[in-house]
Amino acid sequence: MAVLKQASDQLDRIKKNVSTSYMYFKDNVTRYHEFRKYVFKESINQQQRAMLQQLQRPIIEFNILEAYVSRLLGEFSKHEPSIEVSPAEGVPVDEKVLELVEGHIRHIMYESNKNSFSYEIYKDLLSGGFSVAKVWTDYASPMSFNQQIYLGRVFDPTICGFDPMARASHKGDGSYSFELYPMLEEDFHKEYPDVQISGLGFARDLEGFNWSYKDVQNQKIVILADYYEKKKKKVKIWKLANGRVITDKRYEQLAAYWIEQQFIEQMPVKVGEPRWTELETVCRYKLVESTILEYEETDYTYLPHVFIDGNSILLTQGTSNCTYQMTRPYIYHAKGAQDLKNFAGMCTANYMENMIQHKFIIMKEAIPQEKDYLEALNDVQRANTIVVNAFSENNPDKQIPTPIREVVNNPLPPEVTAAFQMSDPTTQTILGSYASNVGKNDNDLSGKAVIESSSVGNAAAMPYVVGYLQGLTQIGNIIVDLMPKYIVGSRRIPVVDMHGEKNYRDVNKEGQPYLDYEERAIHCQIEAGVNFQVQKNAALQSIVQLMQASEQFAAFMNSEQGLKILVDNLTIYSADQLKEAVPQWIQQQQQAQQQQAQMAQQQMQNDPAFIRAQAEMMKVQQQKEQDQVENQLEIAKISIDKQLADAKLIESEAKVSQAQIDSAVRLEESQTSIEVHSLEAATKLAEIQSRHHEQAMNEHHAMLATHKLKHEISQASKEKTE
């Protein structure tokens, strides 16, 4: 409530902005309604109608302008804009993210065109001079938590307003935009029962801007305003190591998410010092004359209303340098030619209405009295002979001078007919519409001339296409800005590729693109795309020419594979059904061929000649098989003989080898025996020598012991003697 009370302090300023914008654009609004009515309803205004009634002239009109508008609308309906999404300079954005964003923008525009968004916008430009589109978000359904982005044309472009200081074609650079909603007083009380509007004046004067009024049925109407205004706020931004620039608040949100999801190693590092900058946000007010009903700060960066300009021009007022914008419908300068057509046509009709219906002028005395002669004069539609009196019946001597002559009408002045006929080429010259005649020279009603006519279209109407594309580019940038703010969490969103195929893509999942780019990180550019239908026509013409030039190519195109390609390039009525029916037809043809082959085979099997031929074939086959068996037996016999010869050879070689082995063994045994005997002899000789040595040693020791004993006895004898 405090926020709403604070917003209520801005009521007078907002009401002044709404009134200023309305009055600034009032002339364009009046012109919008006048020319829409002039083209689609009646080309004679109330003042002209009253004057014609007073002059007793026929009130008829010859509308030639709607056909030009309808023709341009028909050509425009075949075109598809080319959408290109690219990152801002120096901002790293994944290619998959760009492809996903581009496909989702196509889907949003595809859904809006189901309600004739592009068609109605272009109709506004041609017949009124301008239009207004709106981008908004809402839940997918009453029971859904997922929000979606929507695009549509506002109900009435003339009750929308923009900042008069806006200079861009789409007016997105202005400070505010709004849309007004008329509501019955009783409906307002039902929706806002606590809001008092008893102080509203409900004036009938509609010359200026009024927040309430009474309509022609004396019903009280309350004006509600849905007002959007830009506000600037200072934020701190950081540059990350991966090249992205992010706000401090956004970094904290992502850091909390990464920590929650255990993606700590993926957290980008801040580089350098932060800086402060100003970012724009959009606030929304909903108000009536006496109070502000609602207030909120949105997530929008851009104003949701987009002005779509036709072919406006900036003019100055008086001698001052004050400029104003003048919007002009496509048929603005052709109004005089249409009035000339109507005037010349009404003159022609007035002449025809006032033509003298009498056929003859007859002197009274020349009228015959006979009934048959009178009938011929009265019934001029029946072929008959007209008889009149040449002399007076009362005085047969009196001749009647010129008894009868025809009534001659004064011809219609040729200037009227010339003016009526001249208005058509004059209108064509004023509008610059010549493409409808292309391809008609020399009876060339098909081929390249018509294709070029359809693809180029009307060059004089290109400024209106350019204005439409400029507005569409602004719409694309608004959608790009809203996607990461409203498509959050794990989602599956629809996309449309450049070929018009619709599918669904997962986002914000592991392994899938994440819509986490920052504001103004991605730019959208929408240009005039190729006329897909004309492109198909050109491809079809090329295929036909190649089929005529090459027999092999013609044979390929008449095959099953070529037929699919040929059907893909058709733009005829029910081409989609034909495209679906071709594969089924091909499958049926293949089944029919198989059935025909089976039937032919069965018929051949029942044919006596075929049976005899088959028997002869079987006989030949059996003889061939028997010859093969005999050949195999002969080959096996030769193989066995060869194996026996090889075995005998191996056996003889084995015997020779065994004899050599036995001889070697015997030789080895004899050598072994000799060595054994030698070893035994050597052993015995060694034993004998050992025994002799041992005996000699024993004798030597005994001799030494004897000498030692003798010495000791001798020594003892000496000591005893002494």
Low-confidence stretches: 436-457
Largest β-sheet summary: 7 strands, antiparallel
- Count of individual helical segments: 19
What fraction of residues sit in β-strands?
15-25%
Distance between the termini: 158 Å
Q: What structural class do you assign from the helix and strand content?
A: alpha+beta
Instruction: Evaluate the radius of gyration.
Output: 56 Å
What fraction, in percent, of the residue positions are helical? 40-55%
Mean pLDDT: 80
Number of strands: 18
Globally, the shape reads: elongated
What does this structure look like?
The chain has 722 residues and is an alpha+beta fold. Helix 17 packs antiparallel against helix 18. 51% of the residues lie in helices and 17% in strands. It has 19 helices and 18 strands. A hairpin with a 7-residue loop joins strand 2 and strand 3. The strands form 6 sheets. Strands 4, 5, 6, 7, 8, 9 and 10 form a 7-stranded antiparallel β-sheet that branches. The chain has a 3-stranded antiparallel β-sheet with strand order 3-2-11. It has a two-stranded antiparallel sheet with strand order 1-18. The longest helix is centred in the C-terminal third of the chain and has 114 residues.
Brief account:
Helix content is 51%, strand content 17%.
Secondary-structure topology with pairs:
Layout: H1 2-8, H2 11-24, H3 26-40, H4 46-55, H5 65-76, E1 82-87, H6 95-113, H7 117-127, E2 130-139, E3 147-153, E4 160-162, E5 176-184, H8 185-191, E6 212-214, E7 220-240, E8 245-247, H9 248-260, E9 270-287, E10 292-297, E11 305-309, E12 313-316, E13 323-326, H10 335-353, E14 360-362, H11 371-378, E15 404-406, H12 414-431, H13 448-456, H14 462-486, E16 491-496, E17 502-507, E18 522-527, H15 532-549, H16 551-557, H17 560-568, H18 575-606, H19 608-721
Antiparallel strand pairs: 1-18, 2-3, 2-11, 4-5, 5-7, 6-7, 7-8, 7-9, 9-10, 12-13, 14-15, 16-17
Helix pairs in contact: 10-12, 13-15, 15-16, 17-18
